[in-house]
Amino acid sequence: MEQRRPHRGADLERRPGDRPGPGGAVSDRATDLTAVDVLDGLAVASDTQGTLHRLPLAGGTRPPVPGHHGEARTVACGQHPDGRAVAVTGGWDGTVRVWDLRAGAELHRIPVEHPVHAVALAADGTVVTGWQGGIGVFRLHDRRRRRR
Length: 148
Hints:
Elements: E1 33-39, E2 42-47, E3 51-56, E4 65-66, E5 72-79, E6 85-91, E7 95-100, E8 105-111, E9 116-121, E10 126-131, E11 134-139
Antiparallel strand pairs: 1-2, 2-3, 3-4, 5-6, 6-7, 7-8, 9-10, 10-11
C-alpha cells in the first residue's frame, strides 16, 4: 500500500490568516472545517461559515466559494451524470447544494426545510440526505440527454 505524505505548511502557499493544523497542514484559510472529502486529487471541505474550499493535493490553491447561510455541515464528492466532478453539501440553512468543482459554481440548490446532518452521492447521481427524523433521496439528471 502506498503511503501518502501529509501536506505541510511549506508545501502550500501561505497567506495572512492561514493557520497550520495538526502536523503543519494548512486548512486553506478555513477557520473551522466541518467535513472533508477527496476526488481526483482535490480535497474538498465545508466550514462553519457555509463556504466550500477546494484544495489541490499536488499544491496550489483555488478560491473558496461562499454558499450556505451559516454552517455547512457535510460534504460528499463524486461525478454528476453529465460527467462533471461535483461536491454535494448540506447545511444548517436547510438546503442541499450541488457544486461544479472545476468552475466553483453552484449547480443546484435543494430546499429540505431542516438542517442537513449528512449527505452521500452515489455513482448513478442519487443524492441521499439525512436530517433529524428524516432521509431524503434526490436524483441528479444529465439535462443534455434527450429523453425518448
